Amino acid sequence: MGNISKLSAVLIGLILGASLVACDDGSAGAQDAAKQLASAVSALDVGSVAFDGKDSGAAHEQLHEVFTALDPVKPAVENGELTLEKDTATVPLNYTWKIGSGEWKYTTSAVLKKSGDRWLTVWNPATLVPGLAAGEILGTLSQSPARAEILGAGDAKLVTYRPVVNVGIDKPLLASADPAASATQLARLVGVDPAAYTQQVQAAGPEAFVAAITLREDGRTITDDQISGIPGARAIRDSLPLAPTRTFARALLGSAAEANAEQIEKSGGTLKAGDTTGTGGLQQQYDAQLRGSNGTQVYAEKAGLTAEERQTLLNGGRRVLFQTDMKVGTLLRTTLDPNLQQLAEDILAKVGPASAIVALRPSSGAVLAAASGPGSNGYDTALLGQYAPGSIFKIVDSLAMIRNGITPDSSVECPATLTVDGRTFKNAEGYPASSLGSVTLRDAFAHSCNTAFINARESVSQAQLEAAATSLGVAVEAPTLGAGAFLGSVPGDATGTEHAASMIGQGKVLMSPLAAAIMAGSVAKGSPVSPQLVVNPGAGEAAADAAASPSAGPTASGIAPASSAPAPAKTSGTPVTAAEAAALADMMRAVVTSGHTGFLASVPGAPVAAKTGTAEFGSENPPQTHAWIVAVHGDLAVAVFVEEGGLGATVSGPLLKEFLTAAG
Description:
This protein is an alpha+beta fold. It has 22 helices and 24 strands. Helix 15 packs across helix 21.
């Protein structure tokens, strides 16, 4: 019985196998060939595809010639349901191209023929593009909109098209002149590297214009006569989206220029050669909104047209296959006051180290100035800097102490030195002896007694410090700002010397100049300030929200850390009340009336209230210091920061006075 069963199983297997073979119509191999073709065309590489009567290499070259105008974009190609008729299979190929802001979708038909045990693809240009004939390729025509403006307060034009001249060597104008000699002469005239520019001129084609520099028309000192006096040199007039000056709010606004090869490659087809795009700052963050989108046309043309024939074709009569309409960009409104921004930059122009001045309006949160000095080397110190705030953080300490029942008139102890877990803390050099011992909180605040605030560490927990900071609008996110910013970081847990250091704005406590201005502004407003810089985020809104969390930036050393800063609290603590803010404002006013910023008493207008800060950093002996000062003056809150600045009162203080006096 066992042998009969085995024999029966074998017979059944043979019968079933024969049935399967009989039912196999060959579609499996054709389907595999169709999938391979779709995948190869998606990669624009058909070198491995077997063709019927055509060399694979030649087919690959022709495919590339057809699609060169769309480079670097590649299509997504999927094969559809196959139709089989004897040894011929037909399969639809569904194409999707991302062309600028649009999608070009179409379906073609590919024919496969069986040769022996293989399925070969029949070469046909119409398999690539519907109706494409032999000898035809694709061409493109692109129309770019003008870049939208960036406006400031009162719709002042911060970035708009301004006249420029592109200065360079136009090689057809050289005639018999030596290209190297002209290039060297022009490079020296405009101040670029002669060797590098000469190399560019020599490497360029005989019809090329090789730009050496782009100069603003307004205020340029190099004249047309000087340029034209050099054989082959010329100035071509143009316009570019520019700020009022080369340095105006550069770190904040960024810049816009012709897209480079790397930007074009990373854009995934959104950018093409000749397009203008933003780099850094708001120009990059809101690039899509400001740039709009190109109008793009894809058409068929014969390969090998002369320039004249192509121009005739472009003037009319071309067979258009796909097009997207040009969309103009949307302007970006900001709260930046051009006069205050320029004032801040002029004041910082003489400061060597990294520095910043931030001014905002407490009533609305509008950021009026966010200037980073030349020592910041292009970094946005004003919004992104991460530094120990030093004694300006005593505003936060004081709020936490007030919430624990202390008043500005309460007595606190201010010894000359204080030791915590073996670490000795002392007051700043020159601290008045008359304000040592038992003094009011107001006096300790006015003279910035470190030991008095460190003494309060036992009654003020680290968690209370963190809560007080968020109550004043710092160490939180800034969803309404519309720009990348760091609003501070205060650890919620710290003990021993770290907690003691937090009480004087050191340890792991970090702030940016923007955060410092917000903190002071919240005191003036009587409630937390929600800062705003960008009024209509539009297309950049998602980017703005993402950028509102802190970015990696210079820390105490001024060097960007390898990883991001500590994440700020997601939500604010109990908002500061009007009564709490009034007590803080009273103590900040005492810094001017009886403390060490008496020089601010002469600032005209509303009374000035302030707080200075000096934060030690680094390992030098004596250590280097950050110099801070914050102030409120009517409906204006200002923070001034100098990275390597000595004492806040003596270094940042005069800069603040100059700003407040001129701001009016």
